[in-house]
Write a structure and sequence with these properties.
α4 crosses α6. With 324 residues, the protein is α+β, with helices and mostly antiparallel strands. The protein is 56% helix and 17% strand. A seven-stranded mixed β-sheet has the order 2-1-3-7-6-5-4, sandwiched between helices. Among the domains are: 127 residues, 2-Layer Sandwich (Beta Polymerase, domain 2), CATH 3.30.460; 62 residues, Methane Monooxygenase Hydroxylase, Chain G, domain 1 (Up-down Bundle), CATH 1.20.58.340.
Length: 324
């Protein structure tokens, strides 16, 4: 679906145009066309390929989707893939993984957003409010789109950290160790999803500033360096969080072992207590006329009293040792 198709000249919006006129405008100097598509059909991609002269391999990747984050150079154009990580309001605790493919040339930008409900209208408005920067052409638009994608990762990181803090508060709560391990593994899986979006993009974006850079990025290298700084920070936060989750899992496993040990000690204590009464009953028996020395009148009372006293002493000793 076509979201918009706009012509800009010297950093200023000229007009919204139909797709059929794109090829007429991109041949003009100091002019570029910015087109946005959502969940584009193969026919729409084919039409854009014809208007912009897109490389067939890049179009094929966009058509198939589910690509690894990357920035590839095809002659004088760039093909970029960014992952859009969004929380799903209908399924709390789950992430929706969208994708935006960006084709960038010296006089055009084509963004194709897939499997994502959140658009980039705010990015277009931001660029149009800064005509001095928009004069840099398509390179600045590529930066603005990349910056918007990266900025959306920070709230996700904040949510992860908040959830991890809540889990850590419950680590030493009795009886929650197993549930905490399940929550930690679920959180670890979501952190890995974000890691797969950030790490490849960090490597790819590092090629857009310093040294030889694509022509359309030559005037905005400082901005791409700022994006790389944000990605580096996010990547470090993810690595720290993964280490913390690993430590928390080990602590929870230790808590499970401790709880099982407590149960084992309780069972052993009660077994010892009942073993005493069982031993006396086995030695003296319970079917004699008098006990324990057969004809003694107070033998039965003495046997019961001795069992109760010894069991009570064992119970007191186990309580003192915190086994019971």
């Amino acid at each position: 679906m076509l979201i918009n198709c706009v012509v800009y000249e010297n950093g200023t919006k000229v007009a919204d145009i139909p797709v059929s006129e794109i090829s007429d405008y991109i041949s003009r100097p100091n002019t570029f066309v910015w087109v946005a598509l959502q969940d584009a059909t193969p026919q729409e991609l084919e039409e854009m390929q014809h208007e912009f002269g897109l490389h067939e391999l890049a179009v094929e990747d966009a058509r198939h989707g589910h690509q690894r984050p990357k920035i590839e150079e095809y002659g004088a154009s760039l093909f970029s893939v960014f992952h859009l990580i969004e929380t799903d309001p209908d399924k709390p605790g789950e992430l929706n993984i969208g994708e935006v493919n960006v084709f960038t040339g010296t006089n055009y930008v084509l963004s194709v957003r897939n499997r994502s409900k959140r658009g980039f209208l705010g990015v277009r408005e931001r660029c149009e409010r800064e005509p001095q920067l928009l004069k840099n052409g398509s390179g600045f638009v590529l930066y603005a789109l990349m910056d918007a994608v990266v900025d959306r990762y920070f709230p996700i990181i904040d949510n992860f950290e908040t959830e991890l803090d809540h889990i850590e508060e419950d680590i030493f709560t009795k009886g929650t160790a197993r549930a905490n391990i399940e929550r930690l593994y679920e959180l670890k899986g979501r952190v890995v999803v974000l890691k797969h979006a950030v790490a490849p993009l960090l490597e790819a974006a590092s090629k857009l500033y310093g040294g030889r850079v694509p022509q359309m990025c030559a005037g905005v290298q400082d901005y791409f360096r700022d994006v790389v700084d944000h990605l580096t920070r996010i990547n470090a936060l993810i690595d720290n969080m993964r280490d913390t989750i690993g430590t928390a899992i080990q602590v929870n496993l230790a808590m499970v072992t401790i709880e099982e040990s407590e149960v084992t000690k309780r069972l052993a204590a009660w077994a010892s207590i009942f073993a005493v009464s069982t031993a006396f009953a086995g030695i003296w028996g319970m079917n004699f006329e008098v006990m324990p020395e057969l004809k003694w009148r107070y033998g039965y009372l003495m046997a019961i009293s001795m069992i109760l006293v010894i069991c009570s002493l064992l119970y007191w000793r186990f309580r003192k040792a915190r086994w019971l």
